[in-house]
Write a structure and sequence with these properties.
Blueprint: H1 2-75, H2 95-104, E1 107-117, E2 121-129, E3 147-156, E4 158-160, E5 217-221, E6 224-228, H3 239-242, E7 243-247
Antiparallel strand pairs: 1-2, 2-3, 3-7, 4-5, 5-6
Helix pairs in contact: 1-2
């Protein structure tokens, strides 16, 4: 009986170190997984900051293009290229907004980390998290920061609606009446109205005050017709109606 007890005590003594080793291994594995989770959270935070920074720069550029387009139409300047988002030099650097949004997400844009692109217009932003992964069982994580990159694209929604000219039924470049109206005057003459249309505006595109008449601009924005009246620019479309902003794949 004494021998049996001694044998059982010996087996228990031999199993105890194995038990301690197994518990220590499981504890280390748990801590290692926790460190991986910390790194993943830091990386995800960095990616969120990069996405927000890229979108912030692109949306700021979109807003500036919209204002430039509105000003050009109001001034009677060339504006067609602005409708595509190209040919525009923004008065303020959109990358300033990239840094602001990165900072709001506890990160910073790295040096030279906001790069504009064209065809289409885009902004590629690289950020670095302000906080490190933190202390863990894996050496070096206490000083390890996450970096992430994102690209946002600005694409036009609208195109100029230019109606096709009506076909000439005679084929000789004149209308059915040979280029004359019912009063025997050609298309360049004046009819009974004295050269004014039904709204009282002259045929030369001027109103009664002698001011140049600005024609309404017809746009097609993703299948929807939008009319821009240069005389009612208070109804000018929002930037989001003229341009879309999205993250690139």
């Amino acid at each position: 009986m004494t021998a049996r007890r001694s044998r059982l005590a010996g087996d228990a003594g031999q199993a105890f170190p194995i038990y301690i080793t197994a518990v220590a291994a499981l504890l280390f594995l748990a801590l290692a997984l926790f460190a991986v989770g910390q790194a993943g959270a830091t990386r995800n935070g960095g990616q969120t900051a990069a996405d927000a920074a890229a979108l912030g720069a692109a949306e700021d550029f979109r807003d500036q293009v919209r204002k430039g387009l509105l000003d050009a139409i109001a001034d009677g300047a060339s504006w067609e290229e602005l409708l595509t988002g190209r040919g525009f030099d923004p008065p303020h650097d959109p990358c300033d907004q990239a840094q602001w949004f990165a900072g709001e997400n506890d990160a910073d844009v790295v040096s030279g980390g906001c790069v504009p692109g064209y065809l289409p217009v885009s902004f590629t932003v690289t950020v670095k998290t302000r906080k490190a992964v933190g202390k863990s069982v894996i050496p070096g994580t206490e000083t390890k920061h996450a970096t992430a990159k994102a690209k946002a694209v600005v694409e036009p929604r609208c195109v100029l609606d230019e109606p096709s000219p009506l076909p000439d039924p005679t084929g000789d470049g004149k209308g059915d009446d040979g280029g004359k109206d019912d009063g025997g005057k050609d298309g360049g003459g004046k009819g009974d109205g004295g050269g004014k249309d039904d709204d009282g505006k002259d045929d030369d595109g001027k109103d009664d005050d002698g001011k140049d008449e600005k024609p309404v601009i017809d746009l097609v924005c993703e299948g929807e017709d939008i009319a821009i009246d240069p005389e009612r620019l208070d109804l000018f479309p929002d930037a989001k109606d003229l341009f879309s902003v999205h993250l690139a794949d």
